[in-house]
Queue: 2 jobs
Job 1
Amino acid sequence: MHRPDEQFATSPNCATGDIFDLAADLARRLIARDGAIVPLPDPRRVEQALHLAPPALGQPLETVAEHLWRLLECTPSTAGPRYFNQLFAGRDDAAILGEILAAVSNNSMYTFKAAGAQILAERALIKHMGAKVGWTTCEGAFTPGGSMSNLAAMLVARDNALPDARERGLDGRPIAIYTSAESHYSIKKNTAILGMGRQTVRAIPADNEGRMRTDALAEAIAHDKAAGVTPVLIVATAGTTVQGAFDPIREIAGVARDHGVWLHVDGAFGGTLLLSRHRRHRLDGCELADSFTWDAHKMMGIPLTCSVALFRDPTLLQRSLDESASYLFQRDDDAYNPGLRSLQCGRRNDALKLWTAWQHHGDEGYEQRVERQFALAAHAVGIIEADPALTLVRRPQSINVCFAVAGVDARPLCNQLDHDGLIKVSHGEVDGKPIVRLVCANPALTEPDIDAFFAEIRAAAVRIRG
Ligand SMILES: Cc1ncc(COP(=O)(O)O)c(C=O)c1O
C-alpha cells in the first residue's frame, strides 16, 4: 500500500528510470493516436468524467499515470495529419530531449550562479539568432511567447522615446504606435499593459497583398507629429497571423529613420525564413530594425513556448528592466545574469530545447525544414487552383494558404470538421470575408496528407450544402 509520507523519503533523486519508463509508455500511446478521429468532446462532460481536483491523499505514480492518460486522451493531437489549426504543429525529437532535461535539471535562468552553463547555451542562441537578423552586436531575452517578446520590445521602445517613462509613467503625454491593420493582437494588448493606452495604436491599412502601406504609414506619422503627438514605435510584421504577409521592412525602416522612430519587427511567425537562403529576402532590411521577435515554437517546431526578443543595441534591454536585488544578483557578472534583462524573475529554461534541436539539425536542417513547409503549401495551392469550387484568396507569401469554398461559409465549415474530429483548421478573415486558413507548419506531413485534407473539406462542404 502506498503511504504518502514515503513518497519524498525514498530517494533524494526523484527522477528515476521508472519515471522515464512511465513517460515513454504514455508518450508512445499519445503518438500512436496522432491520426485518430477524435470528435470534439463537451468540456463540461469531460470535466465531470475526469475527476480533476487534487485529492487529499496521494496515489502511486502508476495510478496517476492512468489518470493522466485519460486526460491526454481528451486532448487534441497537434502532430497528426488532421491538425492545421495554428502556426505550429508536429514534434521534434531533439527538442523534446532538451525539454525533458530542462525539467529534470530544473534551473532557473536568472543567474549564472543558479543555472551555470545553461546560461551560456542561451547566450549562444541569442548571438546566433541576432547574427541571422543581420546584426553584429545584439542582446536578447527568451520570453514565454511572441506576445511577451513584443511586450519587451515595446517597453524598450517606450523608454527610448520617453526616457523618463520608466520612473514617472506617461503623464498623459500624447503618443502613437504604428502597426498594420493585419498585425497580431498582442500589439494592441501590450499598449494597455504598458500603460500607453490602446487608443494610441494607429492601424495602418494594408495593400492588396496584406502588407503595411508605407505611404499611409508616413502620412500618419507626419499627421501625428504636426498635432504634437510623439511617435513611440513602428511595428512591422514579418509573417502576419492570417495571411502570412511580410511588411516591406526596408521601406518601413526608411520611414522610421526619417522620423527618428524605433522600428520593431514582429517576426514571431516569419522570422524563421531568415534560416532559408531562398526565403530570407522576404525580410529584406530587417537588419535596420531596432528589435525583433522570433518564435522558435512556430515554424521551427520547438515545443511551446520558445520565443526570443532580440535587440540591436546590447545596452537597452537591461536599461529598461534591471532592478537591484541583493538576494538574487550576487555577482557582478551582469553579462551572465540574464535576470537583469528579463520580464520574469524565476524563469524556466526554454533555451535548452532549442539549443539541443539546433545542435541536431544545424542551420542546414532548418533551411530544409522551411523548404519542406513551403513545398506542402505549394502543393495545397496547386490543388486549390485545379478545383473550380475552391478559390485562393491570396497568393501565399508564407506557409499560410487562405482559401474560400464556393457556396459555403468558412466558419461553419471549420467548426463542423472540428466537431466531427476530422480536421482542426482555423477560419479567418481576408477583405472582411471568412476564409479557411490552412497552415503547413508540420514538415513531417506528406502530399497525400494535404490531399486528404482537401477531400475532407470537399466532403464537409457537400454535407453543409445539403
Ligand atoms: C505575427 C504574430 N505575432 C505574435 C504572435 C504571438 O505569439 P505567441 O502566441 O507566442 O504569444 C503571433 C501568434 O500567432 C503572431 O502570429
Job 2
Amino acid sequence: MKCKHCDKLLKLSQYKQNDTWKSCPNCSRANGQMHVFYRYPDKFGTTAQRSSPSHPEGAQSYCTCCRSDKVADLSQAKTCDQI
Ligand SMILES: [Zn+2]
Ligand SMILES: [Zn+2]
C-alpha cells in the first residue's frame, strides 16, 4: 500500500525535517492512507543493534506504542501531508 501524499510504501520508514520526524510503519499501515509520523528519536528510541550508515544511532522501526502493544498516541502524530 502506498501513501496518498508522497507515493512511497507505507511500510517504509520516512524521515522529515532533518530527521526530527519519522514515520512508524505499523501506525501508517493502520492509517491506511498516509504515513503517520512521530517526533524522532523521542517516540521511537534507538539501539546500537539497528545502526546503519544513514542512521548510525540505530533507529527503532516502530514507535514506542507499537513496540509495547499500547494504543498508538495519535495526539502526538502527524500525517505525511501535515509536515
Ligand atoms: Zn507519505
Ligand atoms: Zn506506531
